[in-house]
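Table S2 (text version). Query chain:
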Amino acid sequence: MTGVLLLGLVLAQLLSMAVNILDRGRAFYRSTTLQVAEHISDIAKALDAVRPDERARIVSRLSDSRLAIVLSHSPDIADSVSERPYARAFQAMLRRDLGAHWPVHVLLHRATRRDSHTTPFFSEVPANALDRYLTLRLFYLAPRGFAFVTHIQLHDGSWVTFSARLPYEHIARLYILLPKLVLMLAIAVALLLIAVRWVTRPMKKMARAALALGQDLNSAPLEESGPEEIRATARALNVMQLRLQEYVRDRATMLAALSHDLKTFITRLRLRTELLPDSQHRNRLIGDLADMATMVNATLEYLHGIDPGQGQALFDVTALAESIRIDAEDMGWTVTIEGTAREPFYGNPQDLRRCLMNLVDNAVKYGSRATIYLEDRSDGMTIAVCDPGPGIPSHELERVFEPFYRSRPARGRDREGTGLGLNIARTIARAHGGDVTLQAGTARGFCAVIHLPRHTFPGKSTS
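Corresponding structure-token output:
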């Protein structure tokens, strides 16, 4: 956005400069030409008012480097070059001053230094290379090197010829214009950058606040500052945060009541089932109630969601993986660890343990054993849980993350499970700014990979 504004500003400055120079040139040309026309008409009137024998003396005194005057019996137009639009305009100026009864002929004559009738009164093109290549010259309405040759017939029939160089001006030299233009642009760019920063800084704060809100619903409200549009957006975000907090509190209260009631009913049914005389039906009912209790607990655990803002601390990922391996061995599972974490990780250790345990549980269930690979880098941590099992078909690698969805191999091998383990693992990883992906057919087997970026923690320098 800043680049577009800067480009527009530069183009506007250049266009404004061009318009200003052209307008100034036109004004200069018209005013100078008008002065020359008035000067010629005044001289013509003065010559017409004196005796013919006195005119030569007056002409010698009035002729100078700016204006050449010659008395003659007839106009000499042999070497003239016709430029009708300019000649007509200058002739109209003269007739306005002299009157319509004065015979006037105006031509454009190519002027030279040796032409006594067209002695130049503007400087020639500079000879040095700097002026030749770095000078910006604008020629207004006609090129340089021409003069107005005006023939006016006096009342006694004689003619007087005036030769005046066409008005010309060196408008500006680049080495004079450029510093001024650069200074104006620098001031305008500085003000533009300040304005853009003033507008975009609240937007950046809102972006950071939105990201923080996704990780911690109880983060500090956004400061309502800046332009009215930014303040309105910040106010809307703060209202949305309050409503989400109220929604989460209401949901937590409802889930707590639902959990208590469901567990009470399941426990009551289990006690009554154990009193049944038929042991075969009793055992089946007890198994169904156990599955129901497992599903209810898993569903409630999933609905409670993940709160990464709670319980965050530095912890050793290697020690966390080792504790999972020990617990797995106590349950008769085969779990090994390869690699190590070089630095402590900042996050919620309980949630990450739950995430990793869900992936290990799936690996042991469907692959008979699990291997945990730890890869620690400066920008983040990668934890891969791999097993030698058949894995999941490629078209289901993303769908198995949907709540309550179980792939066909999973449903065929084991009736246990609710289809929430992978979804909970991904939710936890994303709450920490990472993700969980599945990779089939790797050299390590079928792998569930946790990607976790490193975050700064209170007291750690970010420099």
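Notes on Table S2: Residues 2-170 form one domain. The chain is about 55% helix and 15% strand.
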